[in-house]
Design goal:
The chain has 127 residues and is an alpha+beta fold. The protein has three helices and two strands.
Length: 127
């Protein structure tokens, strides 16, 4: 019987220490932004507070990617039998003088089959 009475006293003490009773000195509930929300007074004259929830908005970071413009690879034409420098220049829309200068060709008639000719890129002057 003494054990039972000891357990009951211990339980009452623990319950009282946890704040299980009705007390008016509890702090008011606050929202996430720190505002106290008061509601209408109940019939017994005491003031109650309640917590209202606001929707949580997730803010995603703005990506800060750099735009990388790749350098175009040079266009290369391999001379075939019957090709001439003027024919190659005309087919790529490049002036023959520019094509010869880009490839170090002094005599337009001296190109060889299998020779690789670099086709220069012509940038639009309108931009």
């Amino acid at each position: 019987m003494k054990k039972f009475l000891g357990i009951v006293i211990l339980a009452v003490f623990a319950f009282g220490a946890c704040g299980g009773g009705d007390s008016d000195d509890t702090p008011p509930a606050t929202q996430d932004n720190g505002d106290t929300v008061e509601t209408e007074e109940p019939q017994d004259g005491s003031t109650t507070t309640e917590e209202t929830e606001e929707p949580v908005v997730a803010v995603e970071p703005t990506p800060t990617a750099q735009v990388v413009i790749p350098t175009p690879a040079p266009l290369i034409h391999t001379v075939q039998p019957g090709n001439s420098l003027s024919q190659i220049a005309q087919s790529y829309g490049v002036p023959i003088e520019l094509l010869a200068a880009e490839n170090g060709i002094e005599d337009y008639n001296l190109i060889q089959v299998g020779q690789e000719i670099v086709i220069p890129l012509i940038e639009d002057e309108e931009e």
